[in-house]
Amino acid sequence: GFVGSLYYGQVYNSYATGDVSGGKSGGFAGYNGDTIKKSYSTGEAKSGFIAESYDDPEIVETDVYWNTESSGTSTTSGNAVGLTTSELQGETASSNLTGFDFDTVWKTTDTYPKLQK
Question: Predicted confidence band at 57 (pLDDT cuts at 50, 70, 90)?
């Protein structure tokens, strides 16, 4: 995914498209111990967006999504929302990716959303 283990730090407005395998593999992160917001993953993984999330109210996963079809799983840890390929691609992405700023940060494409800059 994008992050193997996030212990201290914050990740915003990011995406991961690569396949991951082995151990605790999540499409975006294997482990989250801090903050991830407004991000998505589309690669094949054992767990959708995050494999394991620290059980603490200070840990924040907000507006995060993964592709249930391309990941090969409907299971994830944390607060991630699973969506289908058609829900994540094209113009429909702007209505399904709640919290994403499609005016100044993200843009829709024929495939998955991309960052504007």
Answer: low
For residue range 12-38, list pLDDT tens digits in order.
999 999 999 888 888 888 888 889 999
Task: Using alpha carbons, select from 108, 33, 109, 117 the residue that is nearest to residue 78.
Answer: 33
Asked whether the CA dihedral 37, 69, 19, 31 is positive or negative, the reply is positive
Separation between Cα atoms, residue 1 and residue 16, nearest integer Å: 6
63-85 pLDDT, tens per residue?
999 999 999 998 877 788 999 99
Neighbouring C-alpha atoms within 13 Å toward the C-beta of 1: 34
Strands (E), 1-117: 3-6, 10-16, 29-32, 35-41, 50-53, 60-67, 81-83, 106-107, 114-115
